[in-house]
Amino acid sequence: MNITFTEISEDWQVTLIKHSLADHQVKIFAQTAQEIDIEALAETEILCPFIYSACDQTLLQKLPRLKAIATNSTGFDHIDLAYCKANQLSVFNVPHYGEHTVAEFTFALLLAISRKIIDSVNRVKSGSFDFTGLRGFDLANKTMGIIGFGNIGQKFAKMCKGFDMQVNVYDIAAHQLHQEADSMGVNWVSLEQIFTASDIISLHLPLTSETKHIIDHAAIQKMQAGVILLNTSRGDLIDSTALLAGLHSKKVAFAGLDVLEGESLIKGEIELLHEQTKRASELQILLEDHVLIQDKRVFVTPHNAFNTQDALARILTTTVSNIDNFVSQIKSDNQII
Ligand code: NAD
Q1: Contact, 145 vs 170, CB < 8 A?
Q2: 10-19, 54-63, 221-230: which range is least confident on average?
Q3: What is the mean pLDDT of residues 189-199?
Q4: Rounded-to-integer distance, Cα 126 and Cα 128, Å
Q5: pLDDT tens across 95-110, in order?
Q6: CB of 172 closer than 6 A to ligand 1?
Q7: Per-residue pLDDT tens for 116-162?
Q8: Whether residue 124 has its Cβ less than 6 Å from ligand 1
Q9: From the CA of 334, how far away is ligand 1's center (Å)?
Q10: Which residue, by CA, sits nearest to atom 16 of ligand 1?
Q11: How far is ligand 1, taken at its centre, from the CA of residue 153, in Å?
């Protein structure tokens, strides 16, 4: 098989891929599929992208030999599933590599906010041991509202319980997950209650047409003054305009964001500026992203929650096994279509 990996830099355990797929023709690129000369992709039978390669009709119809996509990620909102289904392309993801990894990162963002870790370190680096202005707050007894009680949401809930927080969860799959919630001692509530009763809200659900802007103006209006928002899932779950308004009115006290709405625009912003008249709405999102990044109450990280050595090895090992299963036509739970 001709297998193409995109968005894999040298530090991404390239040897593991080459060694495990020695029987195949493997090409590895650091760029996204959009940045690679299409000639170099033309022979691809299995495409293994990360999340910044838009696997849409424009790209996929240029790959005549393509049979499968095995994404190196949990999320698959960058893949046009309808097109894949209509064109008999199989799609695989990596559902289980990072539940601890992403939950730990979310908690790290929360602690950075609650204990002003970044300002504290910068204060000392600047030569001062004065702690004026560095007072934080306890997490114990605060109410955490978790939207999405899947693999990551459950691990995050356990961590919150370990910090003696009150934990409320909401998930559309309530009937399947009630037992987990009960055994963990977390409360099963409505989305409305998450909005109205939480000191902190953390998002752990996929981006779909239903979940886009699940945090919008109306949702923020319902929240308690001083709420903290955490998003390590997908940027488009939060309407940036609404978040900026919430920060402006001080309804939102802090935000910890590993993901931003339209974050791929930031990577390609130079090109975008050249095309500005055509893409005014994208420019607005880009501008809002920059305002969020500069706000001292907002902690933005570069979609880095997945990024540990351990998680990377699990991702690539799973993608290799997804490829093996596809080639050997073995049924797999990781196959989306
Ligand atoms: P998961 O599939 O195990 O859990 C997602 C949960 O969301 C499910 O229980 C599902 O029922 C629930 N859900 C779906 N639609 C919902 C809705 N409308 N309202 C409420 N709940 C809803 O996924 P996971 O492994 O926990 O990952 C969650 C998300 O985290 C992924 O979709 C991905 O976007 C993101 N992620 C981010 C990073 C990163 O580096 N920042 C890494 C991995 C995953």
Answers
A1: yes
A2: 10-19
A3: 98
A4: 6
A5: 999 999 999 999 999 9
A6: yes
A7: 999 999 999 999 999 999 999 999 999 999 999 999 999 999 999 99
A8: no
A9: 15
A10: 172
A11: 8
CA distance 41 to 47: 9
Specify the amino acid at residue 16. L
Residue recorded with tokens 């933005």: 300
210 in contact with ligand 1, CB cutoff 6 A:
yes
pLDDT at residue 163, as a whole number: 98
Q: Is the CB of 334 under 6 A from ligand 1?
A: no
Residue with tokens 């095309």: 275
* CA nearest ligand 1 atom 17, residue: 172
Cα(77) to centroid(ligand 1), Å: 11
174 lines ligand 1 (CB under 6 A): no
The tokens for 264 are 């791929």
CA distance 195 to 217: 12
Q: 0.80 exceeded by the pTM?
A: yes
Tokens coding 35: 């940045």
Percent of the chain scoring above 90 in pLDDT: 85
Angle (CA) 267 279 284, round 5°: 70
pLDDT at 277: 55
